[in-house]
Amino acid sequence: MLRPAVTALCLALTLSGCARLAxxxxxxxxxxxxxxxxxxxxxxxxxxxxxxxxxxxQVVDGRVLIATVDVVEVLRSxxxxxxxxxxxASRQGYFNAELVLxxxxxxxxxxDFRVEAPGEFTTDGPAQSRRxxxxxxxxxxxxxxxxxxIVRGASNSRSASR
Length: 162
Hints:
This protein is an alpha+beta fold. It has a domain at 64-161. Helix content is 18%, strand content 37%. It is built from three helices and eight strands; from the N terminus they run αβββββαβαββ. It has helices at 2-22, 127-130, 140-143; strands at residues 64-65, 68-77, 80-88, 95-105, 108-116, 131-139, 148-152, 157-161. Strands 1, 4, 5, 7 and 8 form a five-stranded mixed β-sheet that branches. The chain has a three-stranded antiparallel β-sheet with strand order 2-3-6.
């Protein structure tokens, strides 16, 4: 009878000491300062822009068109539509794929299926390993004047109608 009472008393004392250990230096979670909110605020004058003001910046896209465009789909979404295209690259390793809007004329939107080429030492591989799928959201406002969408590749283009 004495043994369970002593065990319960030791357990109660140990648990009550946990609150004091939580804030002590013996707790390893407190060794590196913990998670505190930063009080220093940076002012807009301290932040320097990456491109100085008054300097014109021209972005050059070094990506190439994908070899062939296989499938183009326009999927409805609550905010408009999602344009999804699948293409096959000429060899394995292409990456950083994106549908780039080229023009919108007479109810036809034209996109380029661009991919970044890998290093020089890649293999051809099977078509499944060279297939790339990419999607681009189109808002309802942009979609209002578009009746047909064309996605261009290096050797062909595919279209989808609304």
